[in-house]
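Subject: Protein entry, chain in single-letter code together with its fold tokens

Category: Structural biology, sequence-to-fold work with a learned token vocabulary.

Notation: Tokens come from a learned vocabulary of local backbone shapes, not from coordinates.

Start of record: The labelled sequence and token lines come straight after this line.
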Amino acid sequence: MKEWKKIPSVEGLQSALTKIFSDFIGAYAVVGALSNGDLFAFRDPFGIRPLYIAKNSETVAIASETSAFALMGKCEIEEVPHGSWVIVKNQDIIRGSVLSSLNPQELKRHCMFEMLYFSSPHSENSKKSMYTLRFLLGTELAKQIQESNTILDYDYVVPVPDTSRAAAIAVAEHLKTPYREYLVKNAYVPRTFILSNNEKRMRALDMKLSLIGPEIGNKNILLVDDSVVRGNTSRLMIKRLKEAGAKHVGLASTCPPILHPCFYGIDFPDPSELVAHGRTQKEIAVALGVDDLFYLTQEGLKKALGTEELCMACLDGKYPMKREGVFESFTAQRRGDRGCEL
């Protein structure tokens, strides 16, 4: 932060960001204040992390999600373009862009995981709520389930709370199968997959989800989840459902198989931690202990989200930004610190 105290002007910010964009390989959306009190913000060259600015007659605000502007009432909201910056002077907004050799074609690659999982359901992207986008993901997933060779005889569609609810409702409606919330989330337990090691994740999982058991006995259950990363949550829920007497358990994911590590802020930089890495779909099903396993395809994901401008590096291995040797050394360091975890 000492560097920012030396930047009193638009020219100073432009110069500093030119250096930052050249030196920093990664995903970021930054908000701060200049030494004169002006608010500033900037976004990485590919726009992997989201950033928005809102304005009404009294206030200018900047945030990573549009839901943060709800208390402002009626306001104009716009997305800060990738590789761009803004400075707020009183009520005036000064805009600029930093051209970078990292992205000479000015491609945008928004993190698909933001839409699948992180963002609040009432935040928006391209004028569509995250709730709507997740519902559309569920619709595409249901179409693929119907087109599979699996004999569909499920009694209930059950979401893994909370972010898969909208998708599970869409799956239930499309498959004409009753929707039930038989998994209950403990609101006081944080997101488990971002915890630092497997022991902490499993301990938190035991406290995070509880099962409403009596209705499960002798039923065929289709679980719907937003994604399957390490497989910890899926494995535990499938085990509990079967212990409660479920006859047959299927699992459907609105995210395609996660095959590659993420180095842009989602905490799975080691491919050996990923349940889908190096396994066929049948092998993944065996590893999870599930009877049926359905994944939305990458084409279905892009169709539901309505855009090709996505970072899907964890799915296809195509990283928007990569510096030779950096990712590999980071993965090796993590393995040395924690050991290989599944």
Summary: The domain at 4-107 is CATH 3.60.20.10 (Glutamine Phosphoribosylpyrophosphate, subunit 1, domain 1). The longest strand covers residues 84-89.
